[in-house]
Amino acid sequence: MALATKYSPAEVEDKWYQYWMDKGFFHSEPNPNKEPYSIVIPPPNVTGVLHMGHMLNNTIQDVLIRKARMEGKEACWVPGTDHASIATEARVVAMLKEKGIKKSDIGREEFLKYAWEWKEKYGGIILEQLKKLGASCDWERTKFTMDPPMTDAVIDVFIDLYKKGYIYRGLRMVNWDPAGKTAVSDDEVNYKDVNSKLYYINYAIEGSSEFVTIATTRPETIMADSAVCINPNDERYKHLKGKKVLIPLINRAIPIIEDEYVAMDFGTGCLKVTPAHDLNDYELGLKHKLEVIDILNDDGTLNALAKIYVGEDRFIARKKIGKELEEKGLLSKVEDYKSNVGHSERTDAVIEPRLSLQWFVKMKDITQPALENVMNDTIQLIPPKFKNTYKHWMENVRDWCISRQLWWGQRIPAWYAPDGSFVVAKSREEAFSQISNLKSKILIEDLKQDEDVLDTWFSSWLWPISVFDPTIFGDPKNKGLPAGKAGNADLNYYYPTNDLITAPEILFFWVARMVMMGYEYRGEMPFKNVYLTGIVRDKQGRKMSKSLGNSPDPLDLIKTYGADGVRTGMLFSSPAGNDLLFDEKLCEQGRNFSNKIWNAFRLVKGWEVVKMEQPQENKIAIEWLESKLNQSIVELEDHYSKFRISDALHTTYKLVWDDFCAWYLEIVKPEFLPDRQAGGKPIDSVTYEKTVQFFESLLKILHPFMPFITEELWHELNERKEKECIIVEAWPKAGAIHEAITKDALVAFEVVAQVRNIRNAKGISPKEALNLIGNVASKKQIDSFASVIKKLGNLSDLSFVNDKVANATSFLVGTLEFYIPMEGKIDAANERESILKEIEYQKGFIVVLDKKLLNEKFIASAKPEVVALERKKKADAEAKIKSLEESLRNL
């Protein structure tokens, strides 16, 4: 069957992805005879659907895993999803609300049934979408962070860290998310500048007509005030020592205390102290033994302790209290004020500091190996600019709040007796055996498990270990064994993994914590390299989002441009750690590249092949492309080793589009003969076989970037056996590089380009043969390519002389001068005018260059290579003027 004139991605992609799956090419098992190469996917949330960030991240992972597979390594890419406690619970609550069901009415067990149903229905969508991209994950190894073995691992780690003293329960000021109704860690708080108001409120001195004015951005919390604090060195307020003030609107008396913590130059120098709703106030309250009054419910509304505006949302209460204060003459003034306000990373709700009994991980000691081994480059961050950010965070890390007031997630394995005492154990039975030794009269049914679940990151920090062996944390036989001995065959073969591809924004949420667990439970790193992608932005530099409407649907892009086109489009401009400015035209460029490859194949397969003498130009073309291919493979290896994935694609693109299609195929392509049925002369069999070999090598190099079209053409090029697929073909190895021939080729191709430019400029038909005369100095450099130049330039003759050539137009290639006799081919008057215009332009260009080169400041401040480049531009312009003036004289 004849090959289609146009590449149809949809047919090809579905066919080959299913074929790869059926033949088990993605699956990996430990193989002692092969070097392992493993990647674990950053597990997307089960609530997620494919977006442009996923596309970039997973394309890079697939490029690396496909190359490793072709290099003969045992390549294993483990996929999976994250249970995403807060986001998933919010989705399920919303779903139930639509059915008229309240979470609080059905209880935990019933709610979890709905949650699991939701997960089973929607949780795998994103992984199915990744298949459309061509992701060659080992789908047989797919994991979910709440799979029973994965949950066991999380519980085992909690118990172990608790026994080691890393985990504790305590009453602390936490970040409370009123929308999610849960505590969140410091790392899950995003700070934003918010335009707010600074309220100057008058507090009456008890038993006096005096008052003090206090500036606050939160008038809704005055009902929770426990004191007013002044600096003991502030002369303005010395007379207030030992007195009390009345809280406006509720007239509750609170003491005036003294502490040097108060800044005398901020606001009025008087500070309201609200221990329940501000971290610093809480610390001050502990020091002065102040009462803690929490006036907020878990959803951010005012509770009964507020006495006024009970049930109102905190922000509505703020406005109403401000208004009432003003009406009662208790407000001195209100100023505009910019505050740096914390927002929940998950829900974007304004965080409420709240005193709460929560579970924490002590971070000081557990972080040390993770800091040391990134700073000494045992683990490489790419690009390394992120090391300083990483260091700052690790050196200033606070204890991690790991409890969440949710139902969806791993439930904390703490069991409480009726008197409030507790034990940490994996099951009710284990807990009872521990606690009954201390309390003989207790019954097993008296034990109540902690209602909270663990932070999602507490499960995903185990990911590089638990995906291979979740039993390692709790199995007694692993205790005391060194890394490489503990755990199953999978873990000891694939761990540590090779590369982690992720986003900089989860460097601390996830990456740092995985490193901590790697050293805690394996005594070694979880991965060797961390490649940090940039943020995908639109061409205006804005972050892509649904609200802006600037984020295209990746699946729509794949339908329009093909998966290979989108993959290459994403990678054309994606340097590590730098943001990608995405433009759909990049995908169009990717699709055009697919079509170029397709058409090149159709050209080659359309040739008639016969045994005949090989033309000289074909011999030199083969010799040149062989060297160029080897040179490109060396470049590619350098780019891959330094994670310059975008540069690797550009090298591949140039090799295929420019070197193979634009030059090599044009050189060896048989002459077109209209009267022949096949359309052209036949090609010699030696050149044809070598061209097919080149095509195969190029398809291999292209495969990690463009898996579908390369597999299709691989099977079209030659008959293949069932498992003779490009996905497992050997990666090309570089051979000899002949620098002389690659340099001579550059000169020859520039000569051809100049001849073509002159044809276009003078309106000379491509079919009209021309004579080309070079000065003797050029003979040595282009002699080997003479037949190539004659064919591509359509030259009737190529000769060399010592003297200038009259009645000819000339051009320079470097310092080499060439002439094309023009007698009878051009209008002399028009040509003279054209040359004079060009001379004038070049002289103007030299004036611009001289302004730079005569500027001492420029010479002193510019890099030497920049100055050298400007001087070369001037020398080239002067040489061109000289050549043009020679052409003028020849006219």
Report on this model:
The protein has 891 residues and is of the alpha/beta class. The protein contains 28 helices and 31 strands. Strands 7, 8, 9, 10, 11, 12 and 13 form a seven-stranded mixed beta sheet that branches. A four-stranded antiparallel beta sheet has the order 6-5-14-16. Strands 29-28-31-30 form a four-stranded mixed beta sheet, with helices on both faces. β1, α2 and β2 form a beta-alpha-beta unit. α1 crosses α22, α9 runs antiparallel to α10 and α18 runs parallel beside α20. The longest helix has 27 residues. The radius of gyration is 37 Å and the shape is globular.
Gyration radius, to the nearest Å? Answer: 37 Å
**Annotation field: number of helices:** 28
Major β-sheet annotation:
7 strands, mixed
SS class? alpha/beta
- The separation of the N and C termini measures 58 Å
The residue fraction in helices comes out at 40-55%
Give the strand content.
15-25%
Number of strands: 31
Provide key terms for this protein.
seven-stranded mixed sheet; 31 strands; single chain; globular; 891 residues; alpha/beta; four-stranded antiparallel sheet
